[in-house]
Design goal:
The protein is of the alpha/beta class. The chain has twelve helices and twelve strands. It has a six-stranded parallel β-sheet. A six-stranded mixed β-sheet has the order 7-6-8-9-10-12, with helices on both faces. Pfam families: LacI, Peripla_BP_3.
């Protein structure tokens, strides 16, 4: 039961109720710099809960020079891919006593500077970019001392730390899995990439087909959403020699592919098998459930935050393996 005073509780109130000094209370709240015994720490936490004490973020910022805010720039939040990264980052940040503050570009060049500058002006301690900015100078907004990392990038970017999944290996696992089922005509549905990035999924798809001596299938390049997947599948299936399997560049595209195939009266995976990329929660609840290569969202989120805390370290690239999650859309499960 909370025992709240008429005025907001202070650190002194917590110290008095716990029978410790205000310095010890600070050590518990800030998790250091000195160690506090588990028994004393619990007394302080119990006092904080009883009094409903909330540390003053502004006071903390004035004293430490840090706000506890981590800025994250994303193109959108509706896409399950970005939503899962945001959730993983926020969970990890909370364990560190920090919070995620979003800046959304909506994939419009005119909004990019406002999104980044608003985070910098709010005093974020660091920046995570999960977006390809048209104006490359915006990556350096806030000065060279502000820690920053590019998320969803497995390649080396000069002067920037990057964290991403092994896209090439993940795409290869997806396409090789379809080949192992005996498919010879394997289509790809994706979209043109923003900025200077190359769609490694499409590159690897083409490489695997060539390596196995399989006929080339013109890719369907639409947009990175359900509608794009729907249009792409309709385009592929309208060709003179339609594919018997489709590699979808994302889970959202995969969901759109499934709808198009259902409307065309095609059985999945009997007539057309489908494998998607990303492995978000949405892929498990489509019909049939999508076989997908999953990105390790939680591991990459934790690594991104570790990189931000490694001040003074030379920027490097952290690459994580992907996992093939076998479900019903590829033909492995009845």
């Amino acid at each position: 039961m909370s025992v709240k005073p008429a005025r907001p509780a202070t650190r002194t109130d917590v110290a008095r109720l716990a029978g410790v000094s205000t310095t010890v209370v600070s050590y518990v709240i800030n998790d250091g710099p000195r160690r506090v015994t588990s028994r004393t720490r619990q007394r302080v936490l119990d006092a904080i809960e009883r009094l409903g004490y909330r540390p003053n973020a502004n006071a903390r910022a004035l004293k430490t020079g840090e706000t506890g805010l981590i800025g994250m720039v994303v193109p959108e939040v509706v896409n399950a891919y970005f939503a899962e990264f945001i959730q993983a980052l926020d969970r990890a940040a909370q364990t560190m006593g920090s919070s995620i503050l979003l800046g959304i570009t909506y994939e419009e060049a005119g909004r990019e500077e406002r999104a980044v500058r608003s985070l910098v002006d709010r005093g974020v301690d660091s920046l995570i970019y999960q977006v390809d900015l048209a104006d490359q100078r915006l990556y350096q907004l806030g000065g060279g001392d502000l820690p920053r990392v590019l998320l969803d990038r497995s390649d080396v970017v000069p002067g920037m730390a990057t964290v991403g999944a092994d896209t090439e290996a993940g795409a290869r696992a997806a396409v090789e899995h379809l080949v192992s089922h005996g498919h010879e005509r394997i289509g790809y549905v994706g979209s043109p990439m923003a900025g200077r990035k190359v769609d490694l999924r499409r590159v690897v798809w083409d490489e695997v087909l060539r390596e196995h001596g399989l006929p080339g299938v013109p890719p369907a390049l639409t947009s990175w959403n359900r509608e794009g997947g729907y249009r792409g599948a309709r385009e592929l299936m309208a060709s003179d020699e339609p594919p018997t399997a489709i590699f979808a560049g994302s889970d959202l595209i995969g969901v759109g592919v499934l709808r198009a195939l259902h409307e065309l009266g095609m059985d999945v995976p009997g007539d057309v098998a489908v494998v998607s990329f990303d492995g978000t929660a949405e892929s498990a609840y489509s019909w049939p459930p999508l076989t997908a290569v999953r990105q390790p969202f939680e591991e990459m989120a934790r690594r991104a935050l570790e990189v931000l805390s490694e001040r003074g370290e030379a920027p490097g690239s952290s690459v994580f393996p992907m996992q093939l999650i076998v479900r019903g859309s590829c033909g492995c499960q009845g």
